[in-house]
Structure formats: structure tokens, C-alpha cells
């Protein structure tokens, strides 16, 4: 989204609005002025006329009153009446005549003393008629129209009256002239009012317009700022949604997609712009076992398990979280979907690991007890062989020993399967190991599969753990059988590979001599895209429940533990060939000498030996065996009992102790033995021992003899233990 550009005030529009306001103001003021001029002129002038007449009458009345008072003062001063009248006449004669009004001195006979020019204007002297009061019309006179008595005042002491007369015709003429003057004077005033008012309104309008423009600019700036903030917040939220590791869908109430993020497109394989309008159910199949899809208003945020539709290849599992989002137009549904296929795989692997751990614990317990019983059997068989029986009996005893060994091998295979067997390499050859495993191999692959075995040249020796080698061989054979659907041919080849021999797809030469076992099948082959993954733990192309994904991973682990490597050559339609390469062994075996099975056991020569074994029957048989070959044996059923014997300063040259026992720990026991002044040589024996315990024993030079064992193996270990042992 792009930011909206900020708007700026438009000057032409502002000027146009101001011009309209000015014109409107002028028209309003002009109209009001015309109304005042036309309607109010008459009213105003009438009021002015009345006021003028009133003022004129009042002035005349005041003048008559003052003159009457002056006459009274002269009379009171003793001036004769004739003299007073003559003075008044002279005064009137000297004053200019005013046609608008005149002053008269009336007597009882209505004679008059007035301005000498009165006759010239048509005034009849003396006046006739009656006076009924002040300000009354003096009828019967022709004085340019009507003549009014404005005011009269008597002169006390004389039969005189001072009267002021007004010519209303002249007054009206003067009023008309005054009206015209006022009208002419009002025009510029009214025009000025219109112009001033218009300018004032324009100025005020301009000022308010500027304020409005400033307010608009502030408002637009705030709107632009807020819009930018909203856009930034929207982009920020969009970036958060896009950065989310989960697929996010925003849908309507019918679960039609309205918006989606990039993870949603990656999950569905559909571009984001193409998802809009499509139904979420086109891509997500909800598991009916866990209820309806999420998103109802009553649920809130909930999770549902689902599967992805329309995706080729492996099955993909989903966790769907749904919730309702309310907005102004109603409500929408938001779905957050996580691909939990890897989590499901890890869950299966964890469950498988738990199963393997349980099997391992069970196998360890079974191996310990089972090997103890085999050791008891082999011990009593060896006792019988010490009695020098005949050839037939000895042959049967040898068969019993061989059967015990085979039983021990089965127990070792169980430990190998459960990853609990300790690594015990021995010097051997590949043809010998293949011959020992052939019977088991034929039983596993079935009668419909032909097994061919071939050996090239004289076999070199290698240090291999026979049980682990057999386990790797059986795993490869089982995979070949499954690949050929139970019908076909498996070829096993052993050969020697000298140093410098090119191997593998890269053709790099070997840095040392190796022995090689090839397991070849006639199956459909392995696609190139899967060849890099087949050795990954828990990876399998078999259906659920048909494979654990551990077979080839365990083969890889076994080969690497022996310091070897695996090479794979496979083409689709041409089968597969696995090559297991192990370093060639030169020199004597690293394990302790086992003695000869048919020779006489080494003599103990009276050496004192402390036997620590918690299995009573095995303790008894070993005590008899070792005593029979010349050892002075004392038995103890626990380490605590053995420590008590050592604490009594009993001298022992050898201590033969079981690894897995109750009571004091092996580490504590070895530490206490090391404190003994006699420093006896220690040999450990175990039907099953943890690799950490064996590593600690080897670190101190303590040999560990695996149960079951023959008397020759036991005496050989005891006689050679002293030269190799370090004190713990």
C-alpha cells in the first residue's frame, strides 16, 4: 500500500469563496440600505419635521415669555406705557423681517404693534378673531397660507399680550429643503455604510477564512500524520503476519479465504493472490475424531488436528487454531495452521526409542540372569570333564558346551538389537563369520530366496564383534528380502581390498588394507534422491507398522564403531549392493588369551582367590572348579561380605567379582580393594555389563570375562591378569 499524499489548501478556491462572501455582503447591505431609505425615509423625516416644529414652537414661546418679562420690568421701572410700546416698535423696526414668523403686541381691541413690513406680505392689521388658547390657529388671516398663534404671554399691569406668530408655509418649505439636504447627506452615509460594512465583512471573513485555512491545514496535517501512523501500523502488523512461522488464514463465516500470508501459500502450494475466495476445506481435512472444525464463537482459541489435502508424497499433519474476530461489518474467522509432520515423526521416534529402551532394560535383565544360568551349566560340565570321562561322554559334554555358546550368542544378539551389548571385538575372518551366520540367515530370508556365498582369495583377518557383525548382516538381508517381496537372490561376497584400491562413487583410494563384505540383491533398486537418507535414524520407505527406520541406521553405527565405512551402489531396476569395509588386523589379538578348549586348564598352584558372586549355584560351581585346578578359593555372596573378609586382613592374590550385584557399588568396592596392603589382582565377570563400567575397568587394566565362559578361559584370564593390571 502507498501513502496518501498530503493535501494543501487551494488558493483559487479560497479567493473564490471570499469573493462570493463579499458580493453577498454587498447585496445584503445594499438591500437593507434601500429598505431603510425607501421605508424609513418618510418616517424619519416626519419625525424630524415634528421635532423641528416642536423646537421652533418652544423657542417662540420662550422668546414671547422673555419679551413679556422685559416689558413688565420697564413698566415696573415707571416707564410710561406709550414709551414702552414706542421702544418695542423701534426695536421691531430695526430688526429684519422674517417671513417665517413675527412678533406682535396685542391689546384688548386686538390692535397690534408689529413689524412695519407686515402689510407688505398681506397681513391684515389689526387682527380679527378670537383666541381660544395658546398654539391655536389665528383664523381669518391671509399670511401666505394659514397663520398660527404659536404662543402668547400677557404683560402684567397692562392689557397687552405678546404673541409669536409662525408662517407654516415657509416652515414647510424650509422643512422640504431640509429633507432634501438630509437625503443628499444620507446617500454617501448609506453608501459608506454599505462599503464599510462590505469591507468589514470581507476583512472579518478573510480573517476567519485564514483561521479556517489554518485549522484545515492543521487538520489535514493531523489526518496525514494519523494516516501515516495507521499505514505504518498496518505494514508492521502485515510484516508480523508474514514473518509468522505458521500459516494464517482470515476467512468469512463460511470459511472462504479472505486473506492469507506467505506461509499459507507455502503450505498449500497455491499463490497468495489465488487463495482469496477459495474454501479452507479444499486444503484442510479435519479429523472427525476430535470434533468439528474450530472457529465457532463459543469456542474461543482452540486447537484441532487435521491433515493437508491434495499434496503428493508423504502424509502431512496439521494443528489448526481457530478463533472469531469481530469488526464493524460483522465477524470473521482466523485460522493459524502449523505443519506438525516433523513433530509427529519425532513423537513416533520418541515412542520407538522408549520401546527400544524398555526392550534394552528387559534384555539386560534377561541377559544377566540367562548368562548366569548358562555359566552354572558350563561350570558343572567343566567339572564333569575334569573327571577324565570316556571319549563318548566327552563328546556329549563338548556338545553341551557348544549349545551353551549358541545360547549365549542368541543372548548377545538380543543385546545387540536393544543397543545394550558391550563392544567386544575379536580377531576373525569374514568367511568364518558368514559360515556361522548362514543357518540363521536362511531361516530369516525364507525358502523363496536363494542365498549365494562366495569368497575371493585368502581371507585377511579383522577385529570384529561377532554378534554385531551378524546383526548388521541380518539387517541387510532382511532389507533385501523386503525389497524383493520375498522372491529373488541375495549374493554375499567377501574379499580383500589392498591400500590404494579405488572405492565408492568418487573413486578415492583406500588409505590402508581392508576386508570387504558385499550384500547384493536383485530388487528394484533405490532412487538417487533417497540414497542420502536411507541411513538416517527412523527414516523408512516402508508403510507404517512395517518398518522402524532403525535397520540401516544400526548397520551404519556398527560399521563405524569398528572403524569401517559403507558404500552403496544402486540403480533403479538393477538392484542394490551394500559394501561393508573393515580395517585389516595385523598382529596378535587384543583380547585376552582364551586357552585351548581341549587342553588342560592352567593350575592355580595354591593361590588364594576370593570369589564374589551373588548367584548361589554359580558361586558353588565356580568354587569347585577353581579348587579343582589348584586355587585356594573363598566364596562371598556380596561385595560387603568380601570387604569384611578383606578387613580381617585375609590375604588374597586374586579377586574374581561379578559386575552386576546388589549392595556396595563396583567403584566403591574397587577403591577399597586398592587400599588393601596385599593389592590382590582383580578380574571382573558379567553376564551383562554397561559400557561405561567396562570402559572404567579397561582404564585400570582390569580384565572383564563375559558369562558364560569355560574353565580354560577363566584360568587363562586369571594367570595373565597380573601382568596387565593397574591399581585403581
Note down, in words, how this protein is organized.
The chain has 728 residues and is of the alpha+beta class. Helix content is 47%, strand content 19%. The chain is built from 16 helices and 24 strands. The protein has helices at 11-76, 81-94, 168-243, 262-268, 272-275, 341-385, 391-417, 430-445, 466-483, 528-531, 551-561, 616-628, 639-647, 666-674, 691-699, 711-724, and strands at 101-106, 112-113, 147-155, 160-167, 247-251, 257-260, 284-286, 302-308, 317-327, 330-339, 426-429, 449-455, 461-464, 488-497, 502-503, 508-509, 514-521, 565-570, 576-583, 608-612, 632-636, 654-658, 681-686, 704-706. The strands form 6 sheets. Strands 6-5-10-9-8-7 form a 6-stranded antiparallel β-sheet. The protein has a 5-stranded mixed β-sheet with strand order 12-14-17-19-18, covered by helices on one side. It has a 5-stranded parallel β-sheet with strand order 21-20-22-23-24. Helix 6 (341-385) runs antiparallel to helix 7, helix 7 crosses helix 9 and helix 13 packs parallel to helix 14.
